[in-house]
Each structure stands twice: as C-alpha cells, then as structure tokens.
Amino acid sequence: MEFDELQKIWDSQNQQPMYMINEDALHNRIHTKKAKAGHITNFTELLLIGVNAGAGCLVVGLNASKSGTNLFMYLLAGWMLITAVAVLVSRIRRLHRENRFDRSLFGELDHAIAMTTYQVRLSQLMRWNTFPIALLVVAGMVDGGKSLWIAVALVIFFLLVNWASGWEHRFYVSRKVELETLQKKLEQE
Q1: H or E, element range at 24
Q2: How far is CA 179 from CA 34, 35, 40, 106, 166, in A?
Q3: 8 A C-beta contact, residue 94 and residue 117
Q4: pLDDT tens digits along 112-136
Q5: What's the pTM value of the predicted model, to 2 decimals?
Q6: Does residue 36 carry a pLDDT above 60?
Q7: Residues in CB range of 15: below 8 A, 6 or more apart
Q8: Alpha-carbon torsion 66, 69, 70, 75, what sign?
C-alpha cells in the first residue's frame, strides 16, 4: 500500500492529517513545562533569600555575642545579606517581566524559555557564589584559631557543594536546550 493511501485512510478515520501537530496537546505540554519551571524558580529564589538572610543574621548574632570580633565572619554575614538582597531584586524584576508574554503557544514557549534562561543564570551565579563564601568561612575559621584540619574539611565540603551545584546547573541547561530545540522545530513548520 502506498504512503498516500495510508494517509488518506488515516485522514478519513481521524479527520486530521497523519502528521499534523496536535496544537492543544502541545500547548498543554508547554504550559506544564512552564508551570514546573516557574515552581522550581520560585522555590529556589525563596530558599536562597531565606537561607542567605537567615544565615547572615545568625552569623552576625553569633559573632557579636562572642568576645573578640572576627572580621571575616562579619564579611561573610555581609556577603550573605547582599546575596539575599540581590536575589530578592532579581526576583522582583523577573516577576515584573512576566506580563509581557502572551498566552498563545509561542508566547507560552517564549515564557518557558525565558524562565529556564533565568534559572540557568541563577544556578550559575549561586555556583560561583560558593567560592567567596568558602573563602570567608575558611579565613574566619583560621582567624578564630580553629584547627587547620577543620579548614581542610571545609574546603573539601565546599568543593563537593560546587560539584553538586554543577550537576544541578547542567540539568537546567538541558531543559533550556530542550525548549529551544522545540521552538526551532515549530518555527520551521
């Protein structure tokens, strides 16, 4: 049987061309991906704001309650509070930009790509953020007279954290590439 005959049978049975894209199903799938990316992004932002602000305040409180000040711990607290504020500002800007996308299939896809792009940048920024935090923590430990073994253990810990955050970052990059590939395919048709 020829291909054209198969397609005619398919069309007559389903009232649709054989390789026609089911736009409703595709739209729902894109909407689901966008919603999932939005949920992860919201959770990540709120977690980063809460953890950095809480840890920054805790470090200030602990350092202030001890006799003798540790400059590196104050710098660490300041860095964490600045990070919390930076993520908060970034979140406000991101939420403000969300109104520019329409609710069409391509608008939802653009929105999903913009959200995953933001997520990729945020994860990359937080990955790089482990280096100044690690440096300040280790310097604070050494300045506070702690054992060098504790400093070495902390360096290993932060290296493992950086490695794990790289895995997370690659996950977000692959999601972005998947959405961009879908966008290119749809633009070709």
Answers
A1: helix 23-65
A2: 10, 13, 16, 11, 20
A3: no
A4: 999 999 999 999 999 999 999 999 9
A5: 0.78
A6: yes
A7: none
A8: positive
